[in-house]
Every structure is written in C-alpha cells, then in structure tokens.
Amino acid sequence: MTRKTLLLALLLAGFASAQNRVYELRTYTCNEGKLEALKSRFRDHTIEIFNRHGMESIGYWVPQDPEKSKTTLIYILAHPSREAAAKNWKEFSNDPEWKKVAAESQVNGTILAKPPESVFMDPTDFSKLK
Questions:
Q1: What residues are paired with 120 via a beta bridge?
Q2: pLDDT tens figures, 98-127
Q3: Sign of CA dihedral 75, 81, 85, 88
C-alpha cells in the first residue's frame, strides 16, 4: 500500500466513523435548589472528564418552562458508536477524579431527584448534525 493510499484509507475511515456516530440525549432532574450545583459540576469538572473518556459534548440546555427550569438540565453527547458509549460510560463512572467530584458536589445533599434519563439517537438523512 502506498503512503497516499494509506492516507486516503485513514481519511475515509475517519469520515465513516464520524458519519456513524451515535448521539445520546440525557435529562437530569435535580432536587429543589440543586440545579446550580449540577451546572457548576458540569462546567467545572464533568465536561473535562467526559472529554478524557471519548464523550463529545454537543450542548447543554435548561427548559424555558418556569417550573422545569428550576430542576432540569438536558444535554447531548456524541459517541463513535453505541458500543463505545457503553465503554465510555463504564470508564467515566470508574474514573477516580469523577468519583471525588461527585462526592464533593453532594456534601450538602443529593443533587439528583431520580436517575438520569438517556435516549440514544441516530441522525436522519436530513439532519444538519451527522
């Protein structure tokens, strides 16, 4: 295989894997008064730890609905595949820094009111995000 052919193969492989990535929509519902603590945890620590484990942050939102805006954080991650997502989450949950950050952020009470909701999604052929 020539160097040019190898480079083309690597580029196409990278393009194909980028085109086949899976998105994960996650919704967190906090205990009353804990949303700012959750947002701080993401802003100051979690996103960086996600990056180390191959989890690409696409965006983070708070609902406009007055009641839900007090307790809800919604975000989207991208993973190379569903299998990679499972591996990424396992490694993330076992990360010593994450365990420390999670414990420290809940010294004044549990942040989440219930387990996060997760939906894995594939882009449609007409989606801007692929």
A1: 24
A2: 999 999 999 999 999 999 999 999 999 999
A3: negative
- Estimate the share of the chain in helix, then strand, then coil, as percent rounded to the nearest 5: 45, 20, 30
Angle at 42 between CA 38 and CA 46, to 5 degrees: 125
Q: What is the pTM of this model?
A: 0.82
Q: Helices (H) and strands (E) in the chain — how many of each?
A: 5, 4
Which domains are present in the chain? Answer: 26-121 (3.30.70.100)
At a CB cut-off of 8 Å and minimum separation 6, what does 88 contact? 53, 54, 55, 79
Contact indicator for 119, 48 with CB cutoff of 8 Å: no
At 94, which amino acid appears?
A: N
**Nearest residue to 92 (alpha-carbon basis) of 128, 42, 126, 129:** 42
Which are the contacts of 108, defined by CB distance < 8 A and separation ≥ 6?
A: 37
